[in-house]
Design goal:
- The structure is a single chain.
- The protein contains eleven helices and eight strands.
- The chain is α/β, with parallel strands linked by helices and 304 residues long.
- α5 (72-79) links the parallel β1 and β2 (84-89).
C-alpha cells in the first residue's frame, strides 16, 4: 500500500510484524490468547454489553472489523454463544494463526473502508477500538452499514471535548486562570494514526442523516497498568495484588465520578440499528444497562 494513498494505514502492518518477530512484543502478543489475565479482564468489561444482543438473537451472524489481535473479539463472541462469526482485519497474518489454533472460525483480510462483502451479508458488525485507527473512519462506518443487515456496534474512546462534563470544565478553567497548559483536544498514537473519538451526539446525527432512528448506548471506564498482560486476575502474589488493586482503584475512581454525574465514561459503545430491534434484543439491552433511544423521524418524508 503506497504511502501517498488515502488508504494508507500508517504503521499497522509493521506493528503486527513486531508481534511475530520482536521477542518482547511477541511475549505480549502471546497473552492475547489468554482469558485469565488482568488485561483480558479489561477487554472483557468492554465487550460484555454485547451479551445482551447475543442472547437476544442467538442465530445471528457476526463480522468483526479490525480484529487483528488473533481475532480476540471474534473469540469473545464465540465463547459467549454466537454461532456464526467471521473475523477480519486489514492484514490477516495473525488471524490465520488464530484460525489454525482453533481460536476463531472464518476470517479474511478486509479494508474497513472498502469491504469485499455483498450488502446485508452479516446480521451484526462489531468494531472495537479500531474505528479510531482508520484514516477515513466514517467511510468505513458507511461500509459497515452497507454490509450489516441489522446493526453496527462500535466500542471506542468517548469524545470528551463534545461531551465535556463538570470536572473537566472546572479543571480547564482553573488551568486557564493559572496560565497552565490544557490537555490537547487532539491525539495521535505511536502506530501513526490520529485518534478519532465518538460521542452520542455525533452517532445520532450520523443515524438521522440516513433516516435510521433506533440506537442504544452504554459506557465503560478503563485504566491501564504496566504488566497487566502477564498477571492472572486471581493471582495472590503480593506484587500482582498491588497492580490489581491499583487498576481496580483507578477504574472505581472514574466510576464514582460517573455515578455522581461529574464526568462521562471514557469508553462509549454505540449500537446503531438498521431495522427495528426485536423485543428480546430490546429487553436484553435494557436489562444489561444500555440506554435505548428512538430518535425522531423525519417529518418531511412520506411513510411507505
Amino acid at each position: 500500500m503506497k504511502k501517498d494513498s488515502y488508504f494508507f494505514y500508517d504503521n499497522h502492518e509493521f506493528e503486527w510484524d513486531r508481534v511475530l518477530n520482536d521477542e518482547e512484543r511477541k511475549k505480549i502478543g502471546d497473552t492475547w490468547f489468554r482469558t485469565d489475565t488482568l488485561d483480558a479482564w479489561r477487554h472483557q468489561r468492554m465487550r460484555a454489553p454485547l451479551q445482551a444482543i447475543i442472547e437476544g438473537d442467538k442465530e445471528a451472524s457476526w463480522l468483526t472489523i479490525g480484529d487483528g489481535r488473533y481475532g480476540t473479539d471474534a473469540n469473545f463472541l464465540i465463547r459467549n454463544g454466537a454461532k456464526k462469526v467471521h473475523a477480519s482485519d486489514l492484514f490477516d497474518r495473525l488471524l490465520q494463526i488464530g484460525h489454525e489454533k482453533g481460536f476463531i472460525q472464518d476470517y479474511s483480510a478486509q479494508n474497513a473502508e472498502a469491504l469485499s462483502f455483498e450488502d446485508n451479508s452479516f446480521d451484526y458488525i462489531y468494531c472495537k477500538e479500531s474505528f479510531h485507527h482508520l484514516p477515513r473512519p466514517y467511510a468505513a462506518l458507511y461500509e459497515m452499514f452497507r454490509v450489516a443487515k441489522k446493526a453496527v456496534i462500535l466500542t471506542e474512546p468517548r469524545d470528551t471535548t463534545i461531551e465535556k462534563s463538570v470536572i473537566p470544565q472546572i479543571r480547564d478553567l482553573a488551568k486557564r486562570i493559572l496560565g497552565k497548559d490544557i490537555k490537547p483536544s487532539h491525539a495521535f498514537e505511536p502506530v501513526g494514526n490520529y485518534v478519532y473519538t465518538i460521542s452520542e451526539r455525533e452517532i445520532e446525527k450520523f443515524m438521522l442523516g440516513m433516516h435510521y432512528t433506533e440506537v442504544a448506548f452504554i459506557g465503560c471506564n478503563d485504566s491501564y497498568q504496566p504488566g497487566v498482560e502477564f498477571i492472572p486476575s486471581d493471582s495472590t502474589d503480593p506484587e500482582h495484588v498491588k497492580v490489581r488493586d491499583k487498576l481496580y482503584a483507578a477504574i472505581e475512581k472514574q466510576d464514582s465520578l460517573c455515578r455522581r454525574r461529574l464526568r462521562s465514561t471514557g469508553i462509549l459503545t454505540a449500537a446503531m440499528f438498521k431495522t427495528k430491534m426485536s423485543d428480546p434484543v430490546c429487553q436484553n439491552l435494557k436489562a444489561h444497562g444500555w440506554t435505548v433511544k428512538t430518535l425522531p423521524a423525519n417529518p418531511y418524508l412520506k411513510k411507505s
